[in-house]
Amino acid sequence: MDEYINGVRVVRHPGEQRQTDVTLTFAVGSRDETLRTIGVAHALEHLVMYSVRDLPIEMNAEVDLLTTTFVASGSPARVGEFLDRVCRALAAPPVGRLALEAGVLAAEEGNVAYPVVAFLFNVRFGARGPGLAWLEGAGYDGLTPEHVLSFAKEWFVPANAVLQVTGPLPDGLELALPSGPAPVRVLPPARSFDGPVVVGHGIPAAGVVLSLPADDDVRLSTLTIMTLRQRIEEKCRFVGGHSYEIGLDMVAGPDGSTDWVVYAEARDGSEEAVSRAVVAALTDLAENGPTPSELAHQIARAEESLVADDPEARRAVSNAMSRIVGEPELPRVDPARLAAVQASDIAAVLKAALPGAIGYGDEHALAVWQEAGFTLAAPCPVIAELPAGRTFKPPLTARAFVKEARSMLWVRTDDALVLRDEDGIHQVRWDEIAGVLRSPDGMTLVFGANGCTIPVDPDMFRGATAVVDELTARVPAGLWFDESKLGGDD
């Protein structure tokens, strides 16, 4: 029977030990913020950990794309105090020190995702959900106490938490979290393509996002992505000597299907070689599947995970998190079927995913992807034709001396703002504005939920002042923000 403490699901891990190890996980991360409140989960985590800083035990906390986690290890009594104080701080965050903590957060310079992961999720989801990891928003100094308080009240409730315990359960645990219903999370609509595409930027790395089906009783999708990662690591690190970090990240949908990103960083001068290795690994595995040794290695790794720790407790945690976020529960692994997985099974998964793949390459290595059949795509959506509306051009002097300005045209319609530049025609609908940045130099940047950003600059487009006035009237005040003053040049 499932165990709960004040509405928090508790999973016990077996282990004969005197000390207590706990992990309190909330199904909320950076993807649950908004453009205006980017960083609020991290800020809340810092404020909470400030409240337990004097406890003489090992403890830590972390925020990533999907979760916020608090961990501690020590005597049962001290760990119990840690948990109760964390929960009380989540119920009443010490927002009085938010301004001071903003400086600490800026100094930390932490990222919730590797830059290639963040960039690819921004291409896929725009300025929403996982795509926010690529953007800066208002900065930590732009957050208000109200942002922190409302975020804590909505997401850090008992129904959105799982507590894992190894060792003695602390006596008298209260876990007095904010009361409230389980939050509702909706994965934003994803941008899709007809055929594999590649996008470029200046990050020295290569990677790809692949949409794979829900895992089954052999975890075939996970086996597939781990096999791809293994091949990329072998070629980029152990054979080529080009990379140190080769990693994975993912976001699951409500039906269990998952957007996986696998990437490899590139040392200076090896960007093309890393792109070539990633492309070759992906296309060859999709066509031929893994080698016998690669397949045997991945099956052995999966089999080891079944005996290395307590599979039932781990599955209980996984299913508890799945219930929280509305995803289907995973079936038990069938060892006999796992051992019988064939190379052709993995090839079939990749072959089916390849038409919808979004590759990433350094901007000077995109030809490698195009040679392999990937079409070059703009990082944000573009439309085919300029709509009718009031048009604005850069001043004549700009068009005369700045090459990029000659092709630029800005259009204001009843439904949207539109910008034509060298990358294509970009559109942000009035009703899909995710945020508006006021820059100190007088420029206004309009961020669309679709990932497009359109500058509204009176110095760049004659007559644009009237549109700034219209933005002020149309866009709610809560979506406006100033450029962060932290981390800039003084």
Describe the protein in words.
The strands form four sheets. Strands 1-2-6-3-5-4 form a six-stranded mixed beta sheet, with helices on both faces. The protein has a six-stranded mixed beta sheet with strand order 9-10-8-11-7-12, sandwiched between helices. Strands 13-14-15-16 form a four-stranded antiparallel beta sheet, with no helix packed on it. By secondary structure, it is α+β, with helices and mostly antiparallel strands. Strand 4 and strand 5 (68-74) form a beta hairpin. The chain folds into three domains: 3-115 and 126-166, 2-Layer Sandwich (Cytochrome Bc1 Complex, Chain A, domain 1), CATH 3.30.830; 197-376, Cytochrome Bc1 Complex, Chain A, domain 1 (2-Layer Sandwich), CATH 3.30.830; 390-482, PH-domain like (Roll), CATH 2.30.29. It has helices at residues 40-50, 76-91, 98-108, 115-125, 145-155, 220-239, 271-288, 292-308, 311-325, 335-339, 343-353, 366-371, 396-401, 465-474; strands at 3-5, 8-13, 20-26, 58-63, 68-74, 161-166, 197-201, 205-212, 246-252, 258-265, 358-362, 375-376, 390-392, 409-412, 416-421, 424-429, 433-438, 444-448, 453-456, 480-482. Helix 7 (271-288) crosses helix 11. It has 14 helices and 20 strands.
